[in-house]
Every structure is written in C-alpha cells, then in structure tokens.
Amino acid sequence: MIDRRNExxxxxxxxAAELPAPDGKPVHWRTLYGWWWKGLRGVCLETILIANRRFxxxxxxxxxxxxxxxxxxxRHAEPRIQEPMPRVCAATRAxxxxxxxxx
Length: 103
What we know:
Elements: E1 9-11, H1 12-18, H2 29-37, E2 48-50, E3 53-57, H3 58-72, H4 90-98
Antiparallel strand pairs: 1-3, 2-3
C-alpha cells in the first residue's frame, strides 16, 4: 500500500519515463496502467487515486520490480536421493548370470 506521506508520488507518465528503455523504445505509461489493472506474473503495481488521477510511487515501482523478478527466478529442484535398486526376481538374476553379469 502506498503511503502518500512518506513515498515519492509519480504520475504513471512520470513513472514510465523513469524506467530504462528496453530495445531503445521508452516504456509507455499504458504499460504501467496494465501492470496496475491486470498485473504481471501475478503481481500488481500499487497505485493510488487522487483527484481522479492515478499515481504510483518510486518505492511502489521498486517493490513491483523486485516482486516480478523474484517470481521469474527459477526454483531450484530438491536434490534427488538415489533410490536403492529394487529387488530383482530370480528369473532375471538367472538371465543376467548366463551373460556373465552379477548383481
């Protein structure tokens, strides 16, 4: 939640202008509107409505970017524990023994 007394408020246009331009194209303010309305990777940009105008804050933008980057990081799989070899039936042992393979 944006704390308007302690955070630096920005219009969506100003916030978009502060973001780095990927591929040389500046980020459009409607992109930030979409981040507020629909979200990205399950995370929504925090905004506040003042006098019928939508604002975000530098701090909210930082929280949003941190959250979407954390959501994008791959989760490391748990290390696999080698399961013991299942019992081999007598017929299989005999077949392997004929070929000179011992278990």
